[in-house]
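Data deposition worksheet. Section B asks for the primary sequence of the deposited chain exactly as it was used as input, without tags or linkers unless they were present during the calculation. Section C holds the resulting structure in token form. Section D is free text for depositor observations; keep each observation to a single sentence. Incomplete worksheets are returned to the depositor.
Section A, Depositor: J.P.
Section B:
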Amino acid sequence: QVQLVESGGGLVQAGGSLRLSCAASGRTVSTYAMGWFRQAPGKEREFVAAISWSGGTTNYRDSVKGRFTISRDNAGVYLQMNSLKPEDTAVYYCAADPNIAILNRYWGQGTQVTVSS
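Section C:
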């Protein structure tokens, strides 16, 4: 069983930065791809970024490229978010899966990110 616990969300002004953390526990999580999704009010959950189990491969949605950076270590996965925009406001969820192309086997509870204009 894999457990994921997000932290680091909050309220920030446009142009500011936040660093999200996702603490991962479970025997096999180090062999899983991990990633971040987000869901804004009234919208569907959308992919944000993913990283392979080795850290050697990363993927980002186009709207966050150059602003967000995903990384991982033995403790979990992180999302450094810079130059935040009001449209980045959402609940951010951590996910883990053996397959980086699927990335939906395990989910965290989410952390709220609010960017004010």
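Section D:
The mean pLDDT is 96.
The CA atoms of residues 30 and 53 lie 6 Å apart.
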